[in-house]
């Protein structure tokens, strides 16, 4: 059964076998507050109490405890799946999201979108990383996906189209920004050869099981580093 705990305390546990939802433990020495995604980048964010949370909204967890923690933010993001009682699912990390245009895209969204697209197109993705494309010279913003395939889908243009459509189905905020291309252009897909990500991670001194590829970022730092590394290695394959 799923549990949600850390050095700071024991926060939630799966209380049934028919769902992976976690029951938030409200009588275990913890006082919980929650930061909406719009507050994550602020120096002095405003938190809301438990009674104000909404189902299906991403929040960053904030903790105070009887062991001495005071409004500590461990960096995890959660969504409530119910409020009677309060049940949650862990959706990612506060450092791994894209919300430049109000699209509020989380790792859980992109993982689902890429898994569904691979299923539809009989493809397999080994690694990926996503960053925003910022507004420039009156051009619309968007997202750039850098993807390393284990099994190539064959038609990368169709894969990009389908991935964009699947992300819209999963994330209503992204769908709203993509509506008729008013705010966001269709995603850009950059394909790199096998081994590119692990070589880049090694070059950064981040190889090993304790390190994970940064999936999402609200800046272009990771993607630009990766693309520069692959360009230097003469590895870039195709853009779509």
Question: Top keywords for this entry?
Answer:
single chain, 240 residues, 32% strand, eight-stranded antiparallel β-sheet, alpha+beta, 24% helix, globular
Our Rg estimate from Cα atoms comes to 19 Å
Q: Can you summarize the main beta sheet?
A: 8 strands, antiparallel
Order of helices and strands: EEEEEEEEEEHEEHHEHHE
Give the spatial strand order of the biggest sheet.
1-2-3-8-7-6-4-5
Low-confidence stretches: none
Proportion in helices? 10-25%
Give the helix/strand class.
alpha+beta
Q: How many distinct beta strands?
A: 14
> Helix count?
5
Mean model confidence by pLDDT: 91
What is the 3D shape?
globular
Strand content: 25-35%
Cα distance, first to last residue?
A: 41 Å
Report on the structure:
The chain is of the alpha+beta class and 240 residues long. It is built from five helices and 14 strands. The chain has helices spanning 107-121, 156-170, 172-178, 196-203, 221-232; strands spanning 3-6, 9-14, 22-24, 30-36, 48-49, 58-65, 76-83, 86-93, 97-98, 105-106, 124-133, 142-151, 188-192, 238-239. Strands 1-2-3-8-7-6-4-5 form an eight-stranded antiparallel sheet, with no helix packed on it. A four-stranded mixed sheet has the order 11-12-13-14, with helices on both faces. Strands 9-10 form a two-stranded antiparallel sheet. The longest helix has 15 residues, at 107-121. The protein starts with a strand and ends with a strand.
